[in-house]
Amino acid sequence: MSMLPDLLLVMLVLGAALWTVAARDRRSSVIGFIALGLLLALVWMRLYAVDVALTEAAVGGGATGLLLLRACARLDSIDAGKPSAGRTLQLLIGFCCAAMGVGIAAAALGGPDLPPTLAPAVAANIDAVGLGNPVTVVLLAYRAIDTLLEKIVLIAALVGVWSLAPDDVWGGPPASLKLAKASEPLTFLAQILPPVGFVIGVYLIWNGADEPGGTFQGGTVLAAMWLLVMLAGLAEPPETRRALLQYLVVFGPAVFLISGFSGFWLAEGFLSYPTGFAKTMIVALEVALALSIAVIVAMMLAGPSARTPR
Amino acid sequence: MVDFYFGAGALVMILTGLALARLLWGPGPADRMMAAQLLGTGGGAIALLIGTGSGVTAMVDVALLLALLAAFAAVALCAGEPGSKGIHRERIK
Amino acid sequence: MTMFWDAMTIVFVSTGVFFFLAGTVGLLRFPDTLTRLHALTKADTLGFGLIAIGLLPQSADVRVGLKLLVIWLILQFAGACSGQLIAQFEHRSRHSS
């Protein structure tokens, strides 16, 4: 009985994925991708991976759709009338993707029936950290080095986006996100929703310590709200050369690094926390990281500088 | 009762899944986006039903996020309209 | 008493599912984009609301119950705005081409 909906869900995921690949025009395939993201959020929920479902809902529902649809519009204006990528290139891309898919499938299906897991070890030692959410414990205590590097990669990605700015506009603000046609419902939405969204974002960050949620989900929600305000034209994106903006971008990872090194003196080594203070430190780190993630995600979606600095 | 929640969740999934046919048929981006939006609302309802059925109250937060970002895809659709400002460089050399 | 609340849940959730059915049928069967928009933004918001109300008596504590109501309020607001936005998008794309 309970197999049926899951089977259906799998078929819908495959259908949406197939549509995304096969759709003739870009915009349709991007909308297919948005639908695919929502379906994947459902899949994660069925797997009881609520943290991942939240991330998928926040990133898939809030960030990627906007990024890809704006990219569509930009590409439309650049290559109107030009033929799309050559057949050889398309085949090559298709082949590489298929090879990767087959590789992942082989790894997933070919492994032992019961893959080796550290979950019991995490469950046994969770009290030592003092947090209720095992995912946050793994991310910020046991595998903190991965999380640290992941946040630093985010900075590198933003630097990559900013580097696309031509010399004459370097340091200026990104192109205005404001829509070409003024839209009253959008203005209304951007006036009412962000305060609510801000509270929800903070709630997710705070909740991440004991319940599913955390920095990335909360940070992305905050970024989405900021973007909404910018899209309605109620605020303009800041100049990329502004010191405050750049400090905010590195703030979270810097605090993370400093707390990591302080582990040498205060605890047993790099990225370890002094006994009894683990929870306090992790929650403080999460707040700092979420702030940086919000700024980085929003600025990445806003794009490189496109106007001369004032 | 548990069976009822899962059954209702499965039904909503079937219904919103069927609506995905609009994704295929179109004809315009607005129609396709509507299918995705219905999936978002339905997804929220499924989250509530499965969350209640399984006792995982955190799933309510998934519904919260889906509801909060429900309008975002429609905003993105307008932002990705051909000829939108901010898509082109404003100073052209 | 539990039976009463359970019955209420079943009635409201079933009605909610019915409105999702209405939304799907409308989205698939209505003749053009703007009429289909009616099916989307009204039927599914109502369906969601009924399901949320139906689940209220079953919520683990007051906090979860309040959250259900907040979600529904946000969804009503977002649904109304996104309906307008999609309609404007459709309107513009018809008149520009």
Task: Provide an overview of this structure.
The complex is a heterotrimer of chains A (310), B (93) and C (97). Chain A is an all-alpha fold and 310 residues long. Chain A folds into two domains: 77 residues, no CATH class; 180 residues, no CATH class. Chain A has eleven helices and no strands. The longest helix of chain A is centred in the first third of the chain and has 29 residues. By secondary structure, chain B is mainly alpha-helical. Chain B has one domain. The longest helix of chain B is centred in the middle third of the chain and has 26 residues. The C terminus of chain B is likely disordered. Chain C has one domain. In chain C, helix 1 packs antiparallel against helix 2 and helix 2 runs antiparallel to helix 3. The N and C termini of chain C lie far apart (61 Å). Chains in contact: A-B, A-C, B-C. Chains A and B meet through helix 1, helix 2, helix 3, helix 8 and helix 9 of A and helix 1, helix 3, helix 4 and helix 5 of B.
Distance between the termini of chain B: 67 Å
What characterizes the major β-sheet of chain C?
Answer: none
> What's the average pLDDT of chain B?
80
The global form of chain B is flat
Write the layout of secondary structure elements.
The complex is a heterotrimer of chains A (310), B (93) and C (97).
Chain A lengths: L2 H20 L3 H21 L3 H29 L8 H24 L8 H11 L4 H9 L1 H19 L21 H24 L7 H17 L11 H24 L11 H25 L8
Helix pairs in contact in A: 1-2, 2-3, 3-9, 5-6, 6-7, 7-10, 7-11, 8-9, 9-11, 10-11
Chain B lengths: L1 H18 L1 H5 L3 H26 L4 H10 L1 H10 L14
Chain C lengths: L1 H28 L3 H23 L6 H35 L1
Helix pairs in contact in C: 1-2, 2-3
